[in-house]
Design brief:
The chain is of the alpha/beta class and 377 residues long. It contains 15 helices and 13 strands.
Length: 377
């Protein structure tokens, strides 16, 4: 069965990692898999090297709305569809989700699927912009066979805004290479030194793309506030993006004595999490953050903003603390509560590790997706 996945950019994010993991674990005996994505992104090499998959790079795929480029992308993707006669088109991310599904309609593909890795509309957008994205999703959903959501919250949001009827939504949870995260072997002291940490003090970390959605400036402010109250702490910001310069500018206003480290993009997140004591996420809106699933699997207490499907992962007061989006003082309070209560930290750590069971394994996600393919095809 010929299947084509399409995602806007091969950057280092949850949607991209999920797509890579999914394609890597689909049965090569059952499916002939292709992927369409932009040629620009940190994960280009990983997409190029996918075993058993054909990768097409479309130079017209861009994240931002660009009508001339978007039309060219649609025509290019349509041509790829027609040349390969795919049975199923499976789109990911907002831009590729719209363009990829319309190209599939014009190419008369029989099964069109879309995975929502967080809706493109949110409460922080101007009213008309938000309504425009809702309209696009709703009109495109009419000819979409099924809409896969990675959290119950996203299904609730889709129903609230009348994107599609209930029977069109399917819940398939994110999966990660669970064995890799649960059983990683890492020399913690060596890893700390490689990151620039030369002490045994606690480490706070956030794995995130530095973009407005993740509100990394709130994380920087929270770290500075925590340091003013408990100086024996280290802080990591693992990721990169358009707000890196803004984050550094804010950090320069404080004196953390070299305790705050920007790591940039990293491919050893599993090992870095081994030296992190508390994982933080300051997002303003979300789908289902893979970074939190990964941190929980390592037994890390979480301090995360109440966005998207966070409450489906983090149990407030049990595996961490849930904060209000945009309120970095809440993040400070959560971090300090964990740092100052060793018994609570240990209990949360055990509860966090236990909360991520086999249902979060990538093989389960792949199997559930294959089951959907078989039913629809």
């Amino acid at each position: 069965m010929r299947i084509c996945h399409i995602i806007t950019k091969p950057e280092l994010g949850g949607a991209q990692l999920s797509t890579l993991n999914l394609v890597s674990n689909l049965s090569k005996d059952k499916y002939q898999v292709s992927i369409i994505t932009s040629p620009e992104g940190v994960l280009r090499r990983e997409f190029e090297n996918l075993k058993g998959a054909t990768v097409y790079f479309s130079p017209f795929l861009t994240r931002f709305v660009n009508p001339p480029a978007d039309i060219l992308a649609l025509m290019h993707i349509y041509d790829i569809y027609r040349s390969n006669k795919f049975k199923i088109i499976h789109t990911h991310s907002s831009k590729a989700g719209i363009i990829g599904r319309w190209a599939a309609l014009f190419a008369r593909v029989s099964v069109i699927l879309h995975t929502v890795h967080g809706w493109p509309f949110n409460e922080y957008q101007p009213f008309l912009v938000k309504r425009f994205y809702i309209f696009l999703e709703a009109i495109t959903a009419i000819f979409t066979t099924k809409i896969i959501c990675v959290s119950k919250k996203d299904i609730e949001t889709g129903l609230r805004y009348k994107i599609a009827p209930k029977e069109k939504f399917v819940l398939i949870k994110y999966g990660i290479p669970l064995d890799q995260f649960k059983n990683s072997i890492c020399n913690k002291e060596e890893k700390k030194r490689s990151l620039g940490i030369n002490n045994n003090d606690p480490v706070i970390g956030m794995v995130s793309c530095l973009k407005p959605q993740k509100s990394p400036v709130d994380y920087v402010k929270a770290c500075a506030d925590v340091y003013n109250k408990v100086s024996g702490v280290n802080f990591l910001l693992i990721g990169d993006g358009v707000l890196r310069r803004k984050c550094k500018s804010v950090l320069d206003k404080f004196s953390l004595n070299g305790r705050f480290i920007f790591t940039g993009w990293r491919r050893d997140v599993s090992e870095i999490l081994d030296v992190v004591d508390i994982a933080v996420l300051t997002s303003k809106w979300e789908g289902q953050p893979i970074a939190i699933i990964e941190a929980l699997s390592k037994g890390k207490p979480i301090v995360a903003a109440d966005a998207g499907g966070i409450r489906e992962l983090v149990k407030d007061g049990i595996t961490g603390y849930i904060t209000r989006p945009g309120q970095y003082k809440d993040t400070v309070d959560g971090i300090l509560r964990i740092l100052r209560d060793r018994d609570s930290f240990l209990k949360m750590s055990r509860a966090a590790a236990a909360s991520i069971d086999g249902s979060f394994d990538i093989k389960v996600m792949a199997r559930n997706t294959e089951d959907l393919y078989e039913v629809l095809a």
